[in-house]
Amino acid sequence: MSSFFLLFAGFLATGVPIALALGIAGTAYLYLSGNGMMALMLPQRMIAGVDQFVLLTIPLFLLAGALMNVGGVTERIVTFARAMVGHRRGGMSSVSILSSGFFAGISGSATAEASALGSILIPSMAKQGMPPAYAAALIAVSSVMGPIIPPSITMIIYGVLSGASIGQLFLAGIMPGIGIAVGLLIYASWRARRDGFPVTPRMTARERLAATRRTLPALLLPLIILVGIKAGIFTPTEAAAVAVGYALIIGFVYRDLTIARVWEALIATALVSTSILFITSMASIVSFVFTLEQVPQLIADAMLSLTENPWMILLLLNIFLLVLGMFLEPISILILTMPILMKFQALIGMDPVHFGTMVVLNVVIGMATPPVGILLFIASAISGEPVGKVIREAMPMVGVCLLVLTVIALVPQVSLFFPSFLN
Amino acid sequence: MQDRTGPLTRFVASYIWLVRTLAGVSMLLIVVIMLAQVFWRYILGGSLIWAEELCRYLLIWQTFLVLGLAFSKGEFVVLEFVPSLLSPRLRWLLKAVMAVPIVVFLGLMAWYGWDFASRFDRQTIPALDFIWTALSGEALGLSIRWVYVSVTVGLALLALHVLGDLAVSFRRQVINNLEDTASDADCTAAGTT
After folding, report:
1. Which of B114, B165, B78, B76 is nearest to A46 (CA)?
2. Is the pLDDT of residue A204 over 50?
């Protein structure tokens, strides 16, 4: 098992793409452990890693987000957030957090969120006199809300792998999403007071009303998805297709969408989803190899030999996931660790939806932690600031997210508020 | 760019055009079929029983077909921990060395993938048979092998892209010892946008 991790880390550090590092290390491990003839079965695993109906939600939700973005919805959301909180001290930082929260309601992906909002908001925060590294860190960490506030690609994958209800998981994501938004807002206003960020004049009541009217249709999308899935009108995959249809309709009604833009969005989405699906495909090679070598059992035994106290197991499990999250992206973590996770969920006796919310929140926070925090890299590339500086600014904000994670893990009533309320 | 011969540049440009077009068409088909499915079920009260299967196969082909292009466009998540410490020349060398296990792995999987696909020669695609029967009264009889063969095609193309990117960045990084930005990816896509 250690040979797998050594190989994987070696490939990763030398610049081999994560997907290929997973596949090569997994295959090499198979040969090293004397099961080389099983490699004949790997292409079947690669196809199985993509050949699932619910995985269609990945390109579809990405496409809905892309269409909203080129259709001018992103700008509308930012204007709306400015109308709400722009007049506060260091207003643009609060605007960024609020925009991220709203954007999370139309996009299920953190990376899509960081690149769409970062290109608009990082320059405008810098223009308002905030350090660009701080602006970049704020976008990176706020984007964590993307897969927490429904819809969420990560939660769909979790639901498929674990059998937990996707509709319930979506509802359970609302409270942690709000928690992160509030936590970051408090931190941002503290920073704004401490560093004396400037204040912008308040918009007039008429401007605010206009901004609300122009944004409302976009903000209705999460409601349509939630109601649709909860009421059993459509499956998550169909909900994703409906989201695309909705994005097309409001894009053409607002007249920001053209056929050429839609065509480019289709191609760009195919390219981005391939990079995600190739990871799920390669991760399912590794999970096959792991199962063959009984790695989940080994890890579970190792953890149980340390302690049998449920609270300690919960803590260890979260640390284990956070460490994995430093190196891997959420979907591959879920594919790789699901057998272990299921074992521990039964052992601790946690509610499946509560447990799932905790796990998803945990692995998603990993996207904003170094060294492989993809969100930090995206925000750093947009801002032109070195990753190191962005990481330093991001650390306290990641702390805010970890605080939310702790509350979610320890108090089941928080994440289960909406799921039980609406049942 | 200047050292490229005319026919090669034209060939690469038309290959990229073809892959992009197929990717766009595939995405469009998925969206249209899924929306049609929802429409049929809730407005017309029927169901398109072939929709789910067809969309899955489209997704498989789409995923593997555009792998190479996605790689060259820099869509893959890469951690450049060691490379960022090296000079452009050494970085190219490291990339060339790391290309060996990558190409061996991709070649092996492409080979095994062909083997795997050929085992399904007699199994036909039910969704296409169903549609064809509705249209012409006869089953199409297309083997499911032609879905699974996408792994071989995609991984082979990806290996070619890995080698092609090395060749394109050779001049810039090794001869001129210049920083290799995302420029080689842009060069490959230059003819298309």
Report:
1. B114
2. yes
Closest by Cβ to B75, choosing from A271, A281, A372: A271
> What is the Cα gyration radius of chain A?
21
Facing A274 at nearest CB: one of B70, B81, B101: B70
Per this entry, what is the length of chain A? 423
CB contact under 8 A, A238 and B37: yes
User: Among A136, A62, A141, which Cα is nearest to A381's?
Assistant: A136
* Residue B189 confidence (pLDDT): 34
ipTM of the complex: 0.87
Structure tokens at B69: 């292009």
Residues in chain A closer than 8 A to B119 (CB atoms): none
Do the beta carbons of residue B130 and residue B144 sit within 8 Å? no
Judge if pTM exceeds 0.90: no
Mean pLDDT of A347-362: 94
- Burial per residue of A186-220, b for 16 or more beta-carbon CB atoms within 10 angstroms, e otherwise: ebbbebbeeeebeebeebeeeebeebeebbeebbe
Q: How far apart are CA A154 and CA A146, in angstroms?
A: 10
Residues A220-248, mean pLDDT to the nearest whole number: 86
pLDDT range class, residue B141, cuts 50, 70, 90: confident
CA distance B154 to B163: 14
- Report the amino acid identity of residue B59: L
| B44-63 residues touching A, CB cutoff 8 A | 52, 55-56, 59-60, 62-63
Whether pLDDT at B78 is above 90: no
Measured in degrees and rounded to the nearest 5, phi and psi for residue A148 equal -100, -50
pLDDT at B25: 97
